[in-house]
Amino acid sequence: MKTAFPEILSSLRREKGLSQRKAAADLGISQALLSHYENDAREPKLEFVIKACNYYDVTADYMLGRTTNRTNNAVERLKAMGEILTALDGLHASQADLVAKAKKTIGKKYSIQ
Questions:
Q1: What is the pTM for the complete model shown?
Q2: 25 phi/psi in degrees, rounded to 5
Q3: For 7-47, what is each residue's pLDDT tens digit?
Q4: Best label site of 1, 31, 78, 103, fewest CB within 10 Å?
Q5: What angle is formed at CA 58 by the lines to CA 52 and CA 63, rounded to 5 degrees?
Q6: Which residues contact 87 (CB under 8 A, 6 or more apart)?
Q7: pLDDT at 73
Q8: Concatenated DSSP letters for 42-84?
């Protein structure tokens, strides 16, 4: 079954201006294996897909062709919520408890500091 993965993997490497040799070395595989992945001759293991996502700073959904969004917008929104809550720290003392509770709840659930 033909997937978008090989094309996306190759495209991300070219966008960074990397040779197959350099990208393969950085990813801990041989150039030949990377070539096989990019040409859809071999299917990578999940471990490699995760490593490639981290290397190119994209989500697995993007790497697998499931979305055109390269980043996880939900994570970005949660970080923004954390920033908003931090900004609310200057509220009146009567509202400070509510803000502290909200920060604690959101921080625990989504690892926001």
A1: 0.63
A2: -60, -45
A3: 999 999 999 999 999 999 999 999 999 999 999 999 999 99
A4: 1
A5: 65
A6: none
A7: 65
A8: SPPPHHHHHHHHHHHT--HHHHTTS-S--S-HHHHHHHHHHHH
Give the type of residue at 79. K
At 71, list the tokens: 């980043």
CB 63 within 8 A of CB 8: yes
Instruction: Work out the burial of residue 47: count CB atoms within 10 Å of its CB; fewer than 13 is exposed, 13-18 middle, 19 or more buried.
Output: exposed
Question: Residue 52's pLDDT is what?
Answer: 96
Q: What is the reported pLDDT for 98?
A: 74
Tell me what pLDDT residue 39 has.
96
Q: In angstroms, rounded to a whole number, what is the distance separating the alpha carbons of residues 29 and 88?
A: 48
| 7 neighbors 50 (Cβ within 8 angstroms) | no
Backbone torsions φ then ψ of 30, nearest 5 degrees: -80, 160
Question: What single letter denotes the amino acid at residue 80?
Answer: A
Q: How far is CA 60 from CA 24, 52, 66, 91, 112, in A?
A: 18, 9, 8, 40, 22
